[in-house]
Design goal:
Length: 135
C-alpha cells in the first residue's frame, strides 16, 4: 500500500507498521460523513499537512503516572519499553499546540472521553463558518 501511494500516512511505531488507508477516508469525506482516524503525533503532523482544515484531538491520560500505571497493569511492556513509552508520551505532550482540542482519557471513565469527543463533533457542526475537509 505504501508503494502504491494508498496510505494517507504510515509509520513504524515500536517495531510495528501502522497506516491509514486513503480510500475509505476519501470516500467518507466525499459523502459528508464524520471521519475519525487514530494516529500518533507523527501521523497527525503528516495528515495536518495534507488536510490542515481537519479537526485534531489529542487524546491522553491525565498524567504520565497514570499512563505508567496502565502500561504496568497490561503486563505487555518490558522495563525498557515502559520507560521508552513514558518518555515518548512526555515528548508528545509538548506537541499539544498542533491540536485543536485535548481530551483526557481517565481510568475507568471511557464514557466521559467519548462524550467529550462527541461534544467536539457537535461544536464543530455548530460553527458559523464550517470547516470544509476534503482532499
Amino acid at each position: 500500500m505504501i508503494e502504491n501511494n494508498e496510505l494517507l500516512e504510515w509509520a513504524n511505531v515500536y517495531g510495528n507498521w501502522y497506516g491509514v488507508p486513503k480510500k475509505p477516508v476519501k470516500q467518507a469525506l466525499h459523502k459528508g460523513q464524520d471521519t475519525i482516524v487514530k494516529v500518533d503525533i507523527q501521523g497527525a503532523t503528516t495528515i495536518k499537512k495534507i488536510l490542515p482544515q481537519a479537526v485534531f484531538i489529542f487524546l491522553t491520560p491525565p498524567s504520565t503516572e497514570e499512563l505508567r500505571l496502565r502500561l504496568k497493569q497490561r503486563h505487555t511492556e518490558s522495563s525498557f519499553d515502559l520507560a521508552l513509552r513514558t518518555k515518548t508520551a512526555e515528548e508528545e505532550i509538548k506537541q499539544l499546540s498542533l491540536f485543536d482540542y485535548v481530551v483526557f482519557s481517565r481510568q475507568n471513565e471511557i464514557d466521559r472521553a467519548v462524550a467529550d469527543i462527541e461534544a467536539i463533533i457537535t461544536a464543530e457542526k455548530c460553527r458559523v463558518t464550517p470547516r470544509k475537509v476534503s482532499f
